Amino acid sequence: MQKIFRRFFLEYKEYIVVTLLLVISISLISQNENTQIKKVRTLAFGGFALVHSISSGIRDVFANKDEIEELKKLNAELMLKVNLLREYGLENRELKELLNFRDTTNYELVPGKIISKLVSKTHGNFIVNIGISDSVKTGMPIVNSDGLVGIITDASENFSVVRTLGNSVLNLAVTNQRSNVNGILSWNGNALIIKNIPSNFDNEIGDRIVTSEFSTILPPSIPVGVISEKETNIAGVLTNLVVQPFTDFTAMKNIFAVKFIESEQINELELNLLKK
Question: What pTM value is reported for the model?
Fold first, then answer.
């Protein structure tokens, strides 16, 4: 053991001696009351404090930077979770409304979900996750809890294409629920319009528009929308009625297919007319 200490001392004696001298010097300086020594001591401790403060500040800056990054990451994760919960809340409300609607209708409904929205200015089409395997057929109307969405125009085994009210190719027989004035509803690229209704017919802003009993494709009295504007031509003879739909096509996610096809032959003929 003594040999080890002796070897260690011989190898590092210069450092040991310098360290001892520094310790002795600092001890003497701290105990000396000489004016000059006090000044040196003050400057020494002040310099040490300044260096320590700067180094601590630098460490805190980097530590705070890392902490800020962690907090930002945590905030982003919480934002995504809150947004997901909000989505679940909205979908839960929509599903409750659909269940209530299902309980109040006399028609057999097939629940489905929109998986794709192919929407342009003149052609609005949805793809839904129900098809032939779910007993869904071409010509069946699509609704949600607010009202009519569109009509199935193509059906595969597990998916279907829905031509929505926002498709200029689709023309539907509708009626004013209050006054029983009938007309044909179509999309003009900007709004739903019932064209060329005689101006003396009883139609008022706010009247509800529903599907007509003269249609064999659609069940009667499915809510479509309300009259929001009346546009009379220059001669004052005919009026176009602008209809604000009940359904919000941008927000909806869940739908029902209504199992309503009274006559396959009539349905096919009328569906071909609606496509023209």
Answer: 0.59
